[in-house]
Amino acid sequence: MDSFILHGAVLFSEDVRELKEYDDAYVVCADGVCQGVYEEIPGEFSDLPVEDFWDKLIIPGLADLHTHAPQYTFRGLYGDMELLEWLDRVTFPEEMRYDDMDYAARAYDLFVEDLFTGATTRAAIFATKHTDATLLLMDMLEETGLVTLVGKVNMDRGVPHGYCETTGESVSETLRWLEEVRSRGYRNTSPILTPRFTPTCTDELMKQLGDLSGRYGLPVQSHLSENLDEISLVSRLCPDTRFYGESYDRFGLFGTQGKTIMAHCVWSGEEEIELMLKNGVYIAHCAQSNMRIRSGAAPVSLYLDKGMHVGLGSDTAGGAELSIFSAMRDAVLSSNLRWRLYDRDVRQISFPEAFYMATLGGGAFFGKTGTFKKGYEFDAVVLDDDNIQTLYPASPAERAERLMYLADDRHVVGKYVRGCKLY
Ligand code: GUN
Ligand code: FE
Fold this sequence. Notes:
Blueprint: E1 4-13, E2 19-30, E3 33-38, E4 50-60, E5 62-68, H1 83-96, H2 101-117, E6 120-126, H3 131-144, E7 147-151, E8 153-154, H4 167-184, E9 189-191, E10 194-195, H5 203-216, E11 220-224, H6 228-237, H7 246-249, E12 260-264, H8 270-279, E13 282-285, H9 287-292, H10 300-305, E14 309-312, H11 324-341, H12 351-363, E15 380-383, H13 396-406, E16 412-417, E17 420-421
Parallel strand pairs: 1-4, 5-6, 6-7, 7-9, 8-10, 11-12, 12-13, 13-14
Antiparallel strand pairs: 1-2, 2-3, 4-15, 15-16, 16-17
Fe (iii) ion binds at residues 66, 68, 223, 263, 315, 318.
C-alpha cells in the first residue's frame, strides 16, 4: 500500500444520482486510502509523488458482482436458449471439465488474464463444484492483486450424474476448501458460500450451508428469480415457501447472517423485494445475460428508488462479455426497452445510475470502496480515450458515458487496487 497522487480528469459517484467531475484534478491516496479529490494539492500532501496522466480520465475501479469463471470458455455462444435448457445442454457439461486440473489451469488462465486487463478491480466469482480447481483459480487471482470473492459451487440435486455431489460430499468438500483457503493465507482472495440455486440444492444442503455461514460469518452468493420456468420449478420443489427468496431465507442464506448477493431478480415480487430490502441483500443486475438467455429485464430503477443495494454483474457466459462498461450499457438499454415495451411504471435508468451501480453500488459489497470520497479504499482505473476521435467537446462524465459504449481493454492504461499499482 502506497501513498501517491494521480493527476488527470476525474469522475466519481457522490451518491446514486450525482456524479462529481473535474477536468483537471488530483486524487490523493495515503497508505491505500483515498484522501479526496482536489483542484490544487493540499499542503499536507505536498511531499507525495505525483503520477501525471494529463487529460486521461481517472475513475474508481469497477465491481463485477456476479460472474462464472468456468463459463468464460464459451462466452459469446449459445444466445438461443432459456436458462434451464442452457444449463443442461451447455453449462453443466462444460463445468464438468474442470475435474481435469490441466484443463482448469489453461481455462482459468484466460479468464484471470482478461479480468486483470479490464477495468474491474473487485469481483464475486462462481467456480465449479471442484475444490482443487477452485483453489487453483483462487491462487491465480491472488497473484493479480485484484480483490475477489470466489465460491466453490454447491449442488446436490438436479445436475447430471458426474457433476452432482451428495449432500455429505458437498458439505465435507466445502469444509476442506475453507480449511485449505485459510492455510494459504491469501491477502486479496476470500471464500464466499455458493449454493448454486434452489433447484440444485436440497433443503438439507441449504441448512448445512446456512449453519456454516452463521458459524464463520461467511458471505453468500446465489441466483434468484431469474427465469419464469425456474421460478415455477422452485415453487414445485419448495411448496411450503411463498416466494423464491424464502427458500434461502429460511436457512439463513438471505442476508441475515452473512452479506449476500443474489444475481438477477428479474421477476421478484413485492414480498421478495421487501425481504431483500429488510435484510440488506445485494442485487447483481446482469442485463446482458438476462437478454441473451431470454430471462427478461429487471426493474432496476425500482430497486434503486427503494434504496436497495444494487451492483452490476457480467454473468459470463450467460453474458458474453466480462466488461462492466458493457454491463452499464446493457443496464441502460434494457431499461429503455423495458419501459417502452411493457412497464411505464418503472422508469429507465440514467447514465449516472449505471455508473453508480458499476462503482459504488457494487463496490459496497467489498466494504468502503467504489468512490473517491475521503476514507474509501483506493481503487482506480485510468482510461485513455484519445482514439475516440471526434470534434464534439465532452466533459469527464460524457467521456465516461461514451466509453460505456465504446470501451475495450485497450482503453484501460492504469489500474490501482487498495493503493497498489497493478499496471
Ligand atoms: N442459475 C443457476 N446456475 C446458473 C448459471 O450458471 N448462470 C445463470 N445465468 N443462472 C444460473
Ligand atoms: Fe449466474
